[in-house]
């Protein structure tokens, strides 16, 4: 999982992005789910390999869901120096990021690149 997450972020780096955000589920849960942690590790690995410093403000975590990701993306994309790309820990969260981009009148992929993880069936119809 870490390698696939690193590859997702490497794709954004290959597109020229240097300000890449990561939206995830809450990392510490009582159920010991590790997917968001593993994807964060891949994100960090790709940044480090490219010589890009990790910006803690570019990682937001919250409850899993499209609406929660929408709120996190609004917050992240409203920063004075916003990311030019966002890696979402799931396709469901990526849908929330796309909704936030639309509300903020950001064009995807011209103004913001978005990658979701999981490859759910509906993802092929997005953007």
Task: Give structural notes.
The chain starts with a helix and ends in a 12-residue tail after the last strand. Helices cover 42% and strands 13% of the residues. The protein is globular. The chain has a four-stranded parallel sheet with strand order 2-1-3-4, with helices on both faces. Strand 1 (20-25), helix 2 and strand 2 (59-62) form a beta-alpha-beta unit. It has four helices and four strands, in the order H-E-H-E-H-E-H-E. The protein is of the alpha/beta class and 127 residues long.
What's a quick, concise take on this entry?
By secondary structure, the protein is α/β, with parallel strands linked by helices. The protein contains four helices and four strands.
- Main sheet? 4 strands, parallel
Poorly predicted ranges: none
List the secondary-structure elements in sequence, H or E.
Answer: HEHEHEHE
Gross geometry:
globular
Query: Measured on Cα atoms, how large is the radius of gyration?
Result: 13 Å
Number of alpha- plus pi-helical segments: 4
Spatial order of the strands forming the largest sheet:
2-1-3-4
Strand content: 5-15%
Summarize the amount of helix as a percent range. 40-55%
Averaging pLDDT over every residue, what do you get?
91
For the terminal residues, how far apart are their CA atoms? 25 Å
């Amino acid at each position: 999982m870490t390698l696939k997450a690193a590859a997702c972020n490497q794709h954004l780096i290959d597109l020229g992005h240097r300000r890449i955000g990561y939206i995830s589920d809450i990392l510490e849960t009582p159920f010991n789910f590790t997917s968001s942690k593993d994807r964060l590790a891949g994100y960090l690995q790709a940044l480090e390999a490219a010589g890009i410093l990790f910006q803690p403000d570019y990682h937001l975590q919250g409850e899993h869901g499209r609406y929660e990701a929408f709120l996190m993306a609004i917050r992240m994309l409203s920063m004075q120096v916003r990311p030019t790309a966002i890696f979402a820990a799931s396709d469901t969260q990526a849908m929330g990021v796309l909704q936030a981009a639309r509300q903020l009148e950001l064009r995807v992929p011209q103004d913001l690149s978005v990658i979701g993880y999981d490859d759910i069936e509906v993802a092929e119809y997005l953007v």
